Amino acid sequence: MWYANARVFTPRGSVSGCFEVTEGRFGRILPGACPDPAAVDLGGAKVIPGLVDIHTHGNSGADFSDGDPEGLRRMARYLAAHGVTSFAPASMTLPYETLARAFAAARQLHDAPDPGCARIVGIHMEGPFLSETKKGAQNAAHLRLPDFSAFEGLQKDCGGLIRLVDVAPELEGAVDFTRRAARLCAVSVAHTDADYDRTCAVFDAGASHITHLFNAMPPVHHRRPGVIGAGSERESVTAELICDGMHVHPSAVRMAFRLFPGRICLISDALRCCGLPDGPCELGGQTAFLKDGVARLADGTIAGSAVTLADCLRNAVRFGIPEDEAVAAATLNPARAIGADADLGSVEPGKRADFLVCGEDLRVLRVFVDGAEI
């Protein structure tokens, strides 16, 4: 099937023309008039790849860490309806047995995907190898030192679905853990008070990612560049950014895109309260409160977001990020960060035909997964 009269975002720039979908994969992408007179006319709409959210905890009252397969399906349906076609749900800092149940639910949906749902492409294991000093909304009662054996067991039980595992570089054993875990998945620096040298040590050991840049880490300082300075120097390091307008100031968003050119991954970091009215919600054994679009713990700590990745994409453009860069940050960059970019994340021949038809303001109008509209 051909789709015509569209502005198609590709890794080499936008193309005003048409594109082909064959057996759930992208075919030819051509400028100008479409060779098929029966093509679907998209009326000049923007076509971007399906969004890839590699850090989302929940929505619609469900949380990945609940370990509830039906709740996870509800999350996946909501994500798809809002333009996310692939995702890696993120766990909280919880006991290993609780994580194992959540990871088993992810494997179940991964192995038997439901129509109309976003595709699970991995798991983001955010805890428990984090710093108490920078724990943020993570539950301190379940924090642990890096434990490769525990991680390896969880990875094996879920069939290798963990694509990101987080670690605070200053913790005892972090370098050795990183060296071993990096052979199995991407390792991300997160929830840390580490200085520049300790951070460099885990990057040298194989870490390649930074979880929610600026949040739950020391600020950059001209004499103490810390995590941000260490990561910005390495072209192999990608960095997440919560662009909800609450977690990171618009100026810092622009700064991040300059410090990490082509390496920013927009994320939602959404909680179960996403899509719900204001009120309390459970978060990793703690209570968070959603009010005026911001979720906080009782002590005022910002707990996570209540927005979609599509909201974050539009915010990035509104904050001054060029459209092409913002779209890549919500699609190809996160797919690349978890090693899934050979199959998804961009409109290119041979890749999965996951795409969004958007209005001029990038508001999602239609969603396609594997070439089929949902």
In short:
The protein is an alpha/beta fold and 374 residues long.
Structure description:
This protein is an alpha/beta fold and 374 residues long. The chain folds into two domains: 2-47 and 361-373, no CATH class; 51-344, Metal-dependent hydrolases (TIM Barrel). 26% of the residues lie in helices and 29% in strands. It has helices spanning 69-81, 96-111, 148-157, 174-181, 196-204, 226-232, 250-259, 309-318, 323-329, 332-337; strands spanning 2-10, 13-22, 25-31, 40-49, 51-56, 58-59, 62-63, 84-89, 119-120, 123-125, 162-167, 186-189, 209-210, 238-242, 264-267, 279-283, 286-291, 294-297, 302-304, 355-358, 364-369, 372-373. The strands form five sheets. A seven-stranded mixed beta sheet has the order 3-2-1-4-20-21-22, with no helix packed on it. A six-stranded parallel beta sheet has the order 10-11-12-13-14-15. Helix 5 crosses helix 6 and helix 8 packs antiparallel against helix 9. The longest helix is centred in the N-terminal third of the chain and has 16 residues, at 96-111. The model has no long low-confidence stretch (mean pLDDT 96).
